[in-house]
Each structure stands twice: as structure tokens, then as C-alpha cells.
Amino acid sequence: MRTQAVKTTPINIAGLGIGGLLLAALLYLFVRHWAEFVQYCINFQIYMHRYLVTYLLQQQNHQYHGGVMLVLGSFLYGFLHSIGPGHGKFVITTYLATHRQQLNISRVITLFGSLLQGVMAVLFVLILAVIFNFSMGDLSLSRYWVEKGSAVFIACFGLMLLLRASGWRLRRSPVIRALPASPRLSAATVAHHHDENCHCGHKHLPNANELTGGWRNALWVITAIGIRPCSGAILILVFANAIGMFTWGVIAAMSMALGTALSIMILATLVHHLRERFINTSGALINFYLPQATRIAMILGGIMLLLFALILFSSVIPVSANGDFITAGC
């Protein structure tokens, strides 16, 4: 049988070194100025909320341009607010880095997760403030436990990734089934050029659909993003309900959700292209070991989600009698 050598793409050592130095410098600046960045994001939220409240009052006084500005301002708030620290960006980045999902499906998952976040904020205020007439202190207590619960759910998502990577199921996942039967590879196997057209009777590489975890995994991601209601949406909804403009509060909250969706979809697109660029430029050898690399990436992603959930759980702001939602984050 005629064999072909595996074609590999030469690695630019100098380019990798420069890229590593730049990444280390950015990481150093990120850690050094993290506290200032978080404080700036909080101040920006307060600044934007003053304008949103002003536009809501203008709409109440029949200054209809205030309604237009409320919708546009809420969309801009959601777009810019999602740039700051938050769980949605971390969850979708970890998911796309560890699952070779199709780009359009990734965007749909991001859109639904962001919209669910807006819906959760609406339901939170509708049920507790409108129907049960909770006080601001009770709303803050409820917000406290909702955020604690969302951190636990994100931890469960990370644990699920670890279990999938370890093959802990009666019926093994497609990723695990795609692994070679033996860790030792013969010389003929390595020398043979495997692709979809080699017609040798074996399945060598999992396709994109087999590396995504299926629709159940997508639901995990959507729920992990949307289960934590946006603090900005809760605040504008509470104020809108207090002045009898709850419908406009719902419109503002969903506009925020759409703005957040657009921002995170841009992030998801960047992560997708970076992941594919890395895979495509790493040569045929990395593609041959793609199942093993996917398993390692899922393990690392699961560990990172568990650590992030622990930080999120321990950093929930205390209960405030005045209903302090502004620093709760998204």
C-alpha cells in the first residue's frame, strides 16, 4: 500500500515568542489594574443609569423622544456593560474554546442566553415586586440568593465538562468513541495520510457536530448565561414599576439584553475564528490528535469554570436594605 507522510505546517518560533511576550504583558497589566477597571465599570453603570432614569421620566411626562432615547440608551448600556467583567463572557468563551461548535449555532446560543438574562430580570421583578409586592430589602435578599444559585449552576456546568472529558457515562460520548483504540500507533498508521477520502474503512477524525456535545450541552450554556439576571435591568425595572411604567421597564430590559447579545456575539465570533485558525495552522498532526486535544481542553475549561464559579459565589455583594443592585454585575 502506498503511504504518504503527514504534512505539517512549520511553526514560527520567533512569532510564538513575540506572541507569548505580548500575552504575558497584557496579562500583567490586566491583573495589576483589575481593581481600577472594575471600579470604572461600576461608575459607568451609575452614570448610564442616571440617563436611563431621566429618559423614563421624560416618557412618563409624554415627551415621547424620551422613549426612543430610553430604548437606544438601554441597548447601548447592554452593549457596553457586557464589555466589563461578567459571567456571560467567561461561560461562552470557555464553551467555544473547548467545543468546536459551528459559528451560526454559536451566535444563536449567545443570543438566546442573553435574551434569557433579560427575561429572568423581568420575571424577577414581575413576580417579587409586582405580584408579591416585596420591599427593596426583600428584593435585595432574593437577588442575593439568585446570584448564589447561578454561581452553583455554573459550577455544575464546569463539573459536567469534567465528567464528559473523563468519559463518565454508561454510553461514552462521541469524543471518547473517536479516540484510538490503542495509545500506541504503528508506523504505518502515522505514515498513512488519513482524511475523509482515504477509503481505508476507518473513522479517523470526529466532525464538528461530534465535538459540540449536542443540544443538551447548548441548553447548559444558554441557562448558565441567562440564569443570572442583569443588575441594570433589575434596577430600571424596579424604578419603572415604582412610577407606574413597568411596560417601558420591560422594553428597556429587553433592549439591554439585545445589546448584551450583540457584544457577546462579537466575542464569540472572535473566539471561533481564533480557534479555527489555531487548528488549521497546526498541521495535520494536531488534527489527527484532535480528540485527545479536545479532551484536555474540556478538562481545563471545566476547572476554570469551577474556579470562576467559586469566585462568583464568594463575591456576591451582601444584602442591602435599600436594594443595592448596581454593583451586582451581569
TrEMBL record:
One of its GO terms (molecular function) is nickel cation transmembrane transporter activity. InterPro entries: Ni/Co_transpt_high_affinity (IPR011541), NiCoT_RcnA (IPR051224). Keywords: Cell membrane, Cobalt, Cobalt transport, Ion transport, Membrane, Nickel, Nickel transport, Transmembrane, Transmembrane helix, Transport. Efflux system for nickel and cobalt. The keyword Transmembrane applies. It is a multi-pass membrane protein. This is Nickel/cobalt efflux system. One of its GO terms (cellular component) is plasma membrane. Belongs to the NiCoT transporter (TC 2.A.52) family. RcnA subfamily. The chain crosses the membrane at residues 12-31, 62-80, 108-132, 144-163, 218-240, 246-271, 296-317. It is found in: Cell membrane. GO terms for biological process: cobalt ion transport; response to cobalt ion; response to nickel cation.
